[in-house]
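Thread: "does anyone have the structure for this chain?"

Original post by V.I.:
We have the sequence but no experimental structure in hand. Need at least a predicted one for the grant figures.
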Amino acid sequence: MIKNILAFLFALSFYSVGNAAEGDGCAQFELEDGRISIPIQVAGGDSRAFINTGTRTIGISSSLAERLGLEVVEPDRPADPRFAGLFQQFGTVANLPIVVFGQEIELPEAYVFNSDQEVANFSLLQFRDLIVQVDNPQSRICFVNREALPLSDAQNIGMKTSRTGSAAVEITLNGDEDVWVELQLGFSGAITLDYFTATSLNFVEDGLEAESPSSNAVVDTLQLGPYELGAIGATHPTQRPERSRFTAGLLTASAPRGVEINGQIGYEVLQHFILTMDFGEERMHVFAP
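Reply from O.Q.:
Generated one for you, tokens below.
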């Protein structure tokens, strides 16, 4: 029965997506250093946008904002620790017109991150009312109406919203370690694990903490839905965090409860699969063609 449902799903999926492609329902993407990149227009200027599945919606780099002559308003509040690193918020731009996936959109506000690259940053989590299919082997992203491609009976991997608002999937490591990791198409690596999960897997070595704050290990097996992968590289910290298992400041008293994540899974693993996702209904199907 399950096989019949899945066969129907694939037939419907490729039929629907094929028709959608003729109506601009699909877009080809390129890879830049292991990250998905698509064309985008920002304030009438052509650029590229890196695709991710994080909580931030649309951002542009400080270099792109400068080239386009946009007015950047610096924030009057401390930097949010959730967004440290590559996409640390630098400021905001109001009423920003963009063209992405063939659609013209005017954003009331877009964030600006500090970077020398003239690029944008775009999250697929904005499409919570559609089915999003990322066909990595064919390098394309497609959008299908939920009614045309139901995932309720065909989902084959656990998906939930994390406590930070990002999408998370359940994987099994080394046959018996079930963990929730952030599904992050913007991460070019394989997987990252937190200190406690790495310790449970015996990855944290005594004395290594003094040498380096992070280390690499090899996961013998990684179960992603119905698929088992072998010899997957994992990065993990060597130092026990001083606070809780998740970064202080991620949650507020009014924040909705979600699943606690133990790391990230990125493009190095996901590149082999067609990912069909309903972020709004928290459903996902994984297929290796």
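V.I.: this helps a lot. Residues 1-23, 82-87, 244-255 have pLDDT under 50 and may be disordered.
O.Q.: and Residues 2-22 form the longest helix (21 residues).
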